[in-house]
Design goal:
- About 30% of the residues lie in helices and about 15% in strands.
- Mean pLDDT is about 85; it is low at about 1-65.
- Helix 8 (about 290-300) runs parallel beside helix 10 (about 345-355).
- The strands form three sheets. The protein has an eight-stranded mixed sheet with strand order 9-8-6-7-11-10-12-13, with helices on both faces. It has a three-stranded antiparallel sheet with strand order 3-5-4, with no helix packed on it.
- Strand 6 (about 160-165), helix 4 (about 170-185) and strand 7 (about 185-190) form a beta-alpha-beta unit.
- The protein is built from ten helices and 13 strands.
- The protein is of the alpha+beta class and about 350 residues long.
- The protein has a domain at about 155-355: Glutaredoxin (3-Layer(aba) Sandwich).
- It comes from Vigna angularis var. angularis.
Length: about 350
């Protein structure tokens, strides 16, 4: 088959395509390119604006200093503890647990249908450098003895975390998650699975209808429905004002986002009764990775609010995670409710269910 991959038409077999998908998701395959349409005006008829008081924003890499604005005072007082004798696993580079191979391959399908949208941060570029040019505490891509330095051009950084109410299996929500990856934004996600008791009612209260995604930007007081309007708002406020071509095709964008989810249909959709965490979890991830996707499905089903630290290719936050853990690999979960920090998607899923799901 022939596919459009990272801005280039590539001839490959299905097995080769799956290998390319896994490589991209494991953050070890450098390709680049975004084509953008000219700037369009944000349709006001489908937006819900609470306030318009602008705040100054910084261009630093990680300037957010304030956490989620959701009131957790009504959260359950149940003590959150990890499973007995739990020990975080050692990270295994390029390894997929045999019982998760089918899930990972299915979760990689959007990579094909969405033309790798969300793999690269806006303004991504790379250069081949000498290994000596990279400080030992800095992340760099190495392929067959070649050292590759990756950079990007980021827009203004929000001082407070943007908040998005959504669920994993919604194609409209996926479009917004893709632009979050491209703009390298850290976002607090409030999962809204079907029958979820916490955040669906909150969206109805705030916006007046049950529709997703729903975005709240505490930096400006702006809140809105409609995925295309949210994308336009985010690129105008925190990007270069240009929406990537793959997110500018209207119905075709939504169709391809939906087709990419067929292999995981129903996952990340319906609420599983769970303990409500006193504090949001923290997940280092990005939209395209199938390993991150299967973890996000469980976070949504358990209705666990989480801060997603976006780290697509070119993100400066890859260096931060590298300095924190000694290497870069996603997903990486930090649970402030138990003190657990861990790699490995399969084990993260088991940990989440054992810790939060009500038996």
């Amino acid at each position: 088959m022939v596919v459009f991959f990272g801005g280039t038409w590539v001839k490959c077999t299905f097995s080769k395509l799956m290998a390319m998908s896994a490589a991209l998701s494991l953050s070890q395959f450098p390709v680049s390119g975004f084509i953008c349409f000219p700037k369009r005006r944000l349709p006001s008829r489908s937006s819900y604006i609470r306030a318009m008081s602008e705040t100054s924003s910084s261009t630093s890499v990680s300037s957010q200093k304030e956490g989620p604005t959701t009131d957790y005072s009504s959260a359950s007082s149940v003590t959150i503890v990890p499973p007995p004798n739990f020990k975080p696993p050692e990270p295994k580079r390029f390894a997929v647990r045999p019982d998760k191979i089918g899930e990972v391959l299915g979760a990689a399908l959007p990579l094909l249908f969405r033309f790798a949208t969300g793999v690269f941060v806006s303004g991504y570029s790379f250069s081949v450098v000498s290994k000596d040019e990279i400080p030992p505490d800095q992340y760099a891509l190495e392929l067959n003895g070649i050292t590759i330095k990756e950079t990007s051009k980021l827009g203004p950084r929000p001082e407070k975390y943007i908040e998005i109410y959504e669920f994993e299996s919604c194609p409209f929500c996926r479009k917004v998650r893709e632009i979050v990856a491209i703009l390298d934004l850290d976002v607090v996600f409030y999962p809204c699975p079907r029958n979820g008791p916490n955040f669906r009612p909150k969206v109805l209260q705030m916006g007046g209808k049950l529709q997703f995604p729903y975005m709240v930007d505490p930096n400006t007081g702006v809140s809105m429905y409609e995925s295309d309007d949210i994308i336009r708002y985010l690129v105008d406020k925190y990007g270069d004002g240009k929406v990537p071509l793959s997110l500018s095709l209207g119905f075709l964008t939504t169709l391809t986002a939906g087709l990419g989810m067929l292999s995981r249909i129903g996952k990340g959709t319906t609420y599983t009764p769970a303990k409500f965490p006193p504090k949001p979890l923290k997940l280092w991830a990005y939209e395209v990775s199938p390993f991150c996707k299967i973890v996000r499905e469980v976070l949504v089903e358990l209705e666990l609010p989480h801060l997603l630290v976006s780290c697509a290719r070119g993100s400066p936050k890859r260096h931060i995670l590298y300095q924190k853990t000694g290497h870069f690999q996603v997903p990486f979960l930090e649970d402030p409710n138990t003190g657990i920090e861990m790699f490995e998607s399969a084990e993260i899923i088991e940990y989440l269910r054992a810790t939060y799901a009500l038996q």
